[in-house]
Amino acid sequence: MLKEFKEFAMRGNVVDLAVGVIIGGAFGKIVSSFIEDVITPLLLKPALEAANLSKIEELTAFGGVKYGMFMSAVINFVIVAFVLFLLIKGMNAAKKKEEPAPAAPAGPTQEQLLAEIRDLLKK
């Protein structure tokens, strides 16, 4: 059983998935910091000051419904989705450049073969 577990854990897909989850967690922290420390102060500061708030997460309505937390999560999602879109678009563009041009057809065409047969029959 231990041998089977070792084989399972060392498969390429499992290791790749683990690396992806770890990098995704770190990327999530970067995006959260970007939202809280850059986007909110630069873009949302006037609106937050008008509401007497310092963070978007503090927005509430109807006596305690924290819709600011939801708005913050939506902004985080949109930024992550946009960054992933740009990454995938860049990868696809690089992949298209790597593809070799289609090779010329190997061997003679049907018309060339028929012409050769005709010439041989004439002789």
Automatic annotation (TrEMBL):
Membrane topology per record: Multi-pass membrane protein
Transmembrane segments: 12-35, 67-88
Top-level taxonomic group: Bacteria
Main location group: membrane
Presence of keyword Transmembrane helix: yes
Keyword terms of this UniProt record: Cell membrane, Ion channel, Ion transport, Membrane, Transmembrane, Transmembrane helix, Transport
Family in the record: Belongs to the MscL family.
Primary role: Channel that opens in response to stretch forces in the membrane lipid bilayer. May participate in the regulation of osmotic pressure changes within the cell.
Name of this chain's protein: Large-conductance mechanosensitive channel
Originating gene: mscL
